[in-house]
Amino acid sequence: MGDAPIQPQTPAIAVVGMACRLPGSNNSIHAFWNFLKQARQASNTVPESRFNVGAHADGSGKPKTMTSVPGMFLEDIDIGAFDAGFFNISPAEAMAMDPQQRQLLEVAYECLENSGISVDAIFGREMGCFVGSFVGGADENPSVQTTRREEKIDQYARLR
């Protein structure tokens, strides 16, 4: 008893797999590790396919203008290459999904592959998948817009 602090009983956890899509062409854990070892910088210029920087950044510092032109942008990502059938998703569902949702499915599967654990082995088991993501971007990117905004209201609208 005495004055010894009570230690909480915390169940053991294990990180068994990792995967990523990060700026600086870091599309795998191996690429990201090399990136870190080389102390590289992921900041880059706004890709022309994203938006017209000149329309938003004039150097004046006025409200509603960009004050920082470089950013962190994913590169070498083909959002049209999503294999909806692999995930048992219809083409219509895949088109209705935010491109970041499609990326998340791919990265989560790569994480399982990295762990060496099959999808069948985790069925019905206690498992967590911890995710970090940026929430904006796709709606503002004309290269990923497939329909007019009012046409996007469908049975999947609550998922976005």
From TrEMBL:
Q: Name one GO molecular function term.
A: fatty acid synthase activity
Q: Which domain of life is it from?
A: Eukaryota
Question: What single Pfam family name could you report for this chain, choosing any that match?
Answer: ketoacyl-synt
Q: Which Gene3D superfamilies match?
A: 3.40.47.10
PROSITE patterns in the record, alphabetically? KS3_2
Tell me the SUPFAM superfamilies matching this sequence: Thiolase-like (SSF53901)
Q: Which UniProt keywords apply?
A: Phosphopantetheine, Phosphoprotein
Under the heading SMART domains, the entry gives:
PKS_KS
Asked whether the keyword Nucleotide-binding is assigned, the reply is no
**Biological process, per Gene Ontology:** fatty acid biosynthetic process; secondary metabolite biosynthetic process
Record has Acetylation as a keyword = no
**InterPro entries noted in UniProt:** Ketoacyl_synth_N, PKS_Beta-ketoAc_synthase_dom, PKS_NRPS_Biosynth_Enz, Thiolase-like
Ketosynthase family 3 (KS3) domain mapped to chain residues? 10-160
Record-linked PANTHER family: ENZYME, PUTATIVE (JCVI)-RELATED (PTHR43775:SF18), FATTY ACID SYNTHASE (PTHR43775)
Name of the protein described by the UniProt record: Ketosynthase family 3 (KS3) domain-containing protein
Lineage in the entry? Eukaryota, Fungi, Dikarya, Ascomycota, Pezizomycotina
